Structures are given as C-alpha cells and as structure tokens.
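User: For a benchmark we're assembling, each entry needs the component sequences followed by a predicted structure for the full assembly. Here are entry 17's components. Please fill in the structure.
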Amino acid sequence: MNRTQKARRTLDRLREEIPTPETELRYINPYQLIVAVILSAQCTDKRVNIVTEDLFADYPTMADLAKATPDEIYPYIQSVTYPNNKSKHLVGMAERVMEAYDGEVPQTSKELMTLPGVGRKTAQVVLSVAFEVDALPVDTHVFRVSNRIGLVKKDALTPRKVERQLKRIIPQDEWGEAHHLLILHGRYTCTARSPDCDACPLTDFCTYYERLQRLPDPIDGLDASRGLYYCSTTDRYFDEPAYKTDRYGVRQIVCPVSGSMQVFHTKTGETTKKVPDFRVN
Ligand code: SF4
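Assistant: Structure for entry 17:
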C-alpha cells in the first residue's frame, strides 16, 4: 500500500471513529480563537478552556485585551504552561492587531506570523479553524501519529516536513478535517506514552504497530542475580550495557561483547529494544 492509499484508508477509518472532527478549544469568534490557540501551546485544551472562561468575560474584545498589561492578564492564565510569556504575547498580539489590522485578526499566514506568540502552527490553526482556509497544521499529535502510521517518509523528522508530505498525499479540501482527525486520534488513542493499539482501527497497516509485533517475546525465568541484562545471542548476563543507534535512529542497548540487540531486562524478561515513538523535541 502506498502512502496516498494509506492516508485515504486512515481518514476513512478515523471518520467512522470520530464523527465530529473539530477543535476542542471553546471560542465564538476569531479573537477568542487566536487567544485560545496561543494559550494552548504545550498545554491541554481542557486547561485552556477553563482559564479562557473568566478571561473572555473580563476582556471580551481585542480592544479590551490591548488595553491590559501582562501583569493584569497573568492571574487569569497562571495555571497554563509558560504564563509569563503567554501574558506578554497575548497583550502584544492584541496591541499589534489593533494598530496594524484595525482590530481584526488578519487572514494570511504571513500577517498572522508577525503577531507576538504566533508561529507557523498557530497561524495555520487560526486560518483553518476560524477562516476555513485550507491548512494542515502539524502539532505534536499530528507529527507523532503521521510518523507512527507511516503516512510520511522516514526523513520527516520536523513538523514542517510532515506538513509538506501530508499535503502531497491528502486532497486539499480534506486538510482541515485531516488535521482534527489526526489530533484527536493522537490525543485519545495513539497517545505519546502508551498507544492503545488494541482499540485502534489502523493496526492492519500501521508501521509502528507492525514493528511492535516484530519485537522479541519476553523470556521467562531469567536470573536477575546474575546481571541487569541478558543477551540471548551469547547466553550471557551483564550489568554494563553498550549502545548502538539502529537504522531508525533509535539508541538501543546492545550486548557489550557481541554487539547484539537481542538483549532483555532480567527482572521482567522484556526486550530492551525500543521502537521510535516520534516526539517533537
Ligand atoms: S496501531 Fe497503535 S501505534 Fe498505530 S496508529 Fe493505532 S494506536 Fe497508534
């Protein structure tokens, strides 16, 4: 199956699982959306929705926010990540929108990216969600899920590369929907720490799942008193492992004598082999 077919099948199956693929941020206009998206960087939508309720009640318009100081905004958003920077960005963004764009959130990526706190991803989300411009923003979930499923090539190790490759295999009028489907799949099923493959409809073609299946089975009855690790190639126990980077760029534990990756934790019997999990650094 080529990547275009994989993308088609992925979106078809995710549509069945996720009937309303849309942002979970609460907003009623572009002003509220851009504020919420700035606040959501490295923070959960749930947390953002909690803080924006009071923030929007007291600062209902861009003009109101532009008149505030970062110190006044800070108490509203102190429970989100990076509240110091974000309060400065919010006020700076509102000031610039008032000065340069008559109080209206601009509708091009270039203009949006001139606003404090607005990078490429934030700009793309605002364009896609508020103005229905065809955009495919790549956040940490889209990045991880696209790589795991194998929708992108092995060299797609930056969000920008993932975005470019996805745009080539997904029809333009489906970019916005694909963005939400992949985010929600990553948030609730294919999570960073423990993907719930048992509940996933994509196992028959997911590259990550296939690699997980190829990992060696655990070995029963290892003697942990003889060493932390066991190499099944040399039938040898050891405490001090060596390391090697595999062909997927993952640093693996290897046997210090043979260099074999057939190494197991003696306490659990589990393999030490790791499958790349594609986190955005
Ligand atoms: S099979 Fe597992 S790794 Fe693959 S997309 Fe589904 S949850 Fe993620």
